[in-house]
Write a structure and sequence with these properties.
The complex is a heterodimer of chains A (about 150) and B (about 260). Chain A has about 150 residues and is α+β, with helices and mostly antiparallel strands. Chain A is about 30% helix and about 30% strand. Chain A is extended, with a radius of gyration of 23 Å. In chain B, helix 3 packs antiparallel against helix 4 and helix 4 runs antiparallel to helix 8. The chains are: A alpha+beta (about 150), B mainly alpha (about 260). At the A-B interface, helix 1, strand 6 and helix 4 of A face helix 3, helix 6 and helix 7 of B.
Chain lengths: ~150, ~260
Amino acid sequence: MHPVRKQRLILVLFLVLFSSVAAGLVTYALRGNINLFFPPAEVAAGGAPVGQSIRVGGMVLEDSVQRNQDSLEVTFVLTDYEAQVPVVYAGILPDLFGEGQGAVAAGKLDENGVLQATEVLAKHDENYMPPEVAEALEKSGYDKKGQTR
Amino acid sequence: MSSRIGAAQKGLYNLTVMWTFFHKLGSPPWLYGIAGAIVRWLLPLTILALLVGAAWGLLFTSPDFRQGNSYRIIYIHVPSAVVALAGYYVMAIAGAVSLIWRMKMADVAMKAAAPVGAALTFIALFTGALWGKPTWGTWWEWDARITSMLILLFLYLGVVALYEAFDNKEAAGRACAILSLVGMVNIPIIYKSVDWWYSLHQPASIKFSGESAIDSSMLYPLLLMIGAFYALFTCCLLMNMRAELLQRESRTAWVRRLVKPDGPR
């Protein structure tokens, strides 16, 4: 290769290398801030600030959703199967919200460790299948990832 | 002995063919012609694949067991996002070639790729918002995947704007090549963002190794749509390059002949 072009090639490679290292260091420094939500285990360990706006994300615990008959208030428990965070929310829930499904709640933790949520979002997973397939899997005792329960 | 000579001759011949190919790539009228020829057969195929894939995915596949019909936007959202990421590599590599070898046609390719990539990124963000509202319950969240995709849109638009900001086109090409190479680091970040951080966006459904998390009856139309979007990107890139070539070469004899075949030579 022509020496001038070789020099330019090396320059380009260094440019890509250094920008990657720089981006890597920035994302490493910001690693906690880039997470959209705290998992319940981190909240239980005291990693989440009390009285500040935060988000907590996890699975909605089975049989934990309780709706108030007179208002839109709903309480449920978010879990990552290590720790649990109770959530109180008054508002409209997304269609995909349900027990055993993922959810992200935004709000403030009170002194009792209850998340007073101002917004609840549903989080769905990457599995897509026709209802018949889901039903067949259910019957045969496999979960949606094809593993035995 | 004679076979060795034959092999050497063949090697030399191959080298010559390759060399003339590279040489021709640098020739604007040749590139203009070959790009036109490719678009002429690829564009009808692309439109056919888009129509078949869209009809198959939007009308004939089964609804999802959880999301019902709203998941169907996957057939527009995922292909546009995949090709928006791949298109960035095309732009950045063309930029690197024009930086290192000072190849004018690579510069044309880089400039032509930017608006197409920006459009695809916008489609991915827009359809993502449409999908997010009924499923997640929000149009927009400052999630790692969504935010890094927004940065990709700004990178593409940045290359478009930076190119226009220079009077000297050679300097413009160099500046844009450097910007696109630096921005290349964003692509793996977008791709891995859902695995590295807690995000609202779900991880990838199509897996390179192992079984995909999407049922095969839904996967095949999705793969067809991804292929169709790659072809669409190629067509748009080549058509954009042809327009750019005409503009740059507007004073040359071959463009004059093209516009006025029987005009003065």
